[in-house]
Amino acid sequence: MTANSPLHSSTSAKNSSAKVTKPAKYTIIKQYICENIESGEWPQNAKVPSENELTLKFDVSRMTARRALQDLTEQGILVRSQGAGTFVATFKSQSSLLEIRNISDEISGRGHQHKAKQLLLKSIAVTEEIAILLNLKNNEAVSYSEILHYENDEPIQLEHRYVNVSLVPEYLLQDFTEITPHEYLSSVAPLTEATHEIEAILASSDICQQLDIPSSTPCLQVKRRTWSKQGVVSFAILTSPGDKYRLGSHLKF
After folding, report:
1. 175-184: per-residue pLDDT in tens?
2. Boundary (domain end) residue, out of 56, 88, 120
3. What are 139-184's pLDDT values in tens digits?
4. Which residues of 118-156 are buried (b: 16+ CB within 10 A; e: fewer)?
5. CATH number for the domain including 104?
6. Which of 29, 92, 202, 243 could form a disulfide with 68 if both were Cys (CB 3.0 to 4.6 A apart)?
7. Which candidate, 75, 72, 53, 51, places its Cα nearest to that of 63?
8. How many domains is the chain partitioned into structurally?
């Protein structure tokens, strides 16, 4: 039999097609729901199809439909109310209060695009407050970064971060348009502990300009200190427009 025989061609075609990986069925359902929300077909608070309706539409098990709805609920895209149904959540970006997540992952999890603009990256002398927070001496220097995060080309969070040089000596060598500070720090100094301080503020004129918001816009500010096994790694101040961002969580007991 020659290499160009019909049987050989048929076998090659089968092997080629076998390598194509189709997306999981619950992923297809999630994409369908997100596309309807993105297009405006389903506005805020609109009721989305039930588990039974999705089961029939996509010819899947009820468990698969439930998983798709649950995933989008935990991402803050949908809101489920027992006995009433599942609805499109309000269009504020949601971050978990009880877990430290990479903002790039949060945004991509909502089906949106993340990008970052590196505003500043340099070594600075510590103030007394920063020295105390990072457990340093007053005459030490720290690595300092200012990163503006975007969601679908809209400013969503301004990040000011102070980093302990002794624990993360190569921080200033990174390109934070390619990797987020959180992602980098997690790889070189894995997080073991964190504290949060959260408050509503009226931001300075400089911050309002960077976030492209009026000076009267309330902002949500999170001050976060993180530790690794070796000590305090960083202190970050995360500021977001209050009308575009919220903190939330889903707990199971």
Report:
1. 999 999 999 9
2. 88
3. 789 999 999 999 999 999 999 999 999 999 999 999 999 999 999 9
4. eeebeeeebeeebbebbebeeeeebbbbbbbbbbeeebb
5. 3.40.1410.10
6. 29
7. 51
8. 2
